[in-house]
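Extended Data, panel c. Modelled sequence:
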Amino acid sequence: MANRFIEKLGCFAVLSDPDIALLAKMTAVSRRVRARQDLIREGDRPGPVFVMLEGWACRYKILPEGGRQIIAFLMPGDTCDLHGAVLAEMDHSIQTLTPARVASIGRLEVQELLTGHPEIARALWTTQLIDESVLRVWIVSMGRRDSKARVAHLICELYLRARTIGLASGDSFEMPLSQVVLADALGLTPVHMNRVLHVLRGADIIRFRRGALHIIDPTGLARIAGFDENYLHRRLRDAA
């Protein structure tokens, strides 16, 4: 069975056979988690680093009035809160969006990876910096892009991320996210989210059904989004 975590890290550093064997050992034990289950909640003490081996999850915060803001999507190969150990408590929650398979790496083991294995450390820190780059672009979207551009931009991003880990085929990719989930990530109401998707479908830009999205007009979608993929730093993969 493919280990997308090791595959992802191998895109950002030259991992030796012992490095790969160690990562495989640390993620050999995993657990199945149902959809919509919290892996950790805001206010909890940080625990082990979670590694998404299968399925999708999200980081989110709940507002005082009960509204939810999703602040990141996690796909297979992603890690959760590598640097969380320095915090006294979690400042956000992490929840599965689909059935998932999750491994846990203890904090002492993580420290061993960071101090004793420079190529693994390089790859881990690179992935964290890219996560921060994505968050900056999300802030720009929320503050400056209109709703149609916001939706188009997120679709472009998720497609490229999915294609990188083998979840895309041609211009189609698995996107098991409901309109409510997408709305919570983009600061829109579900009704407005539905309207925007209807506009994009009506313009023959996308087709979205049953957990999969097909991009009919990639150039048109990128133009609506004003999309520039540099923030995903995919050229780092080419260099590695």
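The radius of gyration is 18 Å. This feature is highlighted in the accompanying rendering.
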